[in-house]
Amino acid sequence: ASGTITVLGGRPSDGKSALARSIADGASLAGYAVHLFSLEDPASTVADRMLSDYGRVNLQAFGTLDLRREDVTGICAAAERLGHRKNWILDQEAGLTSAQIATRVRRHKRERGTRVVVIDYLQLLHDPGGTRLEALNGALRGLLALARAEDLAILLLSQLPRAPAREGRPP
Known about the structure:
The protein is 50% helix and 18% strand. By secondary structure, it is α/β, with parallel strands linked by helices. The protein has a 5-stranded parallel β-sheet with strand order 1-5-4-2-3, sandwiched between helices. The mean pLDDT is 82.
């Protein structure tokens, strides 16, 4: 919903980023302009994963170029599908603050009509604050203000600690 933040949390390697890309892709296909911030992975890695996902090709085979004919066909179809998107922005600069994200989103909303923002992931924001918790709370407040002021839907990924999983406890 517009004017809101939805937090998607999970442990490392639980598929948060893949799910977020899929949600962003669906929004883009529905005609919404999407701005994806990948604060961890470079654009080339995100692009490879998207081509692998949408081409239905095993990422390891894609990375080693150990591809079958149908894999190549799938990758070409995925590239064609993604290449025609004019309403998709991938921003991959690490070390951003929520204020820097807000500035970029506002500019792209004016220029391209951004309606959906995906941020991968919360703990990689570098907002100032006394403790890490205070900095993350400040980032959340800033992003919520952005969502409300600009009437945006923001999907914010958050990584949960591994420790409970090792102990067999729920997060």
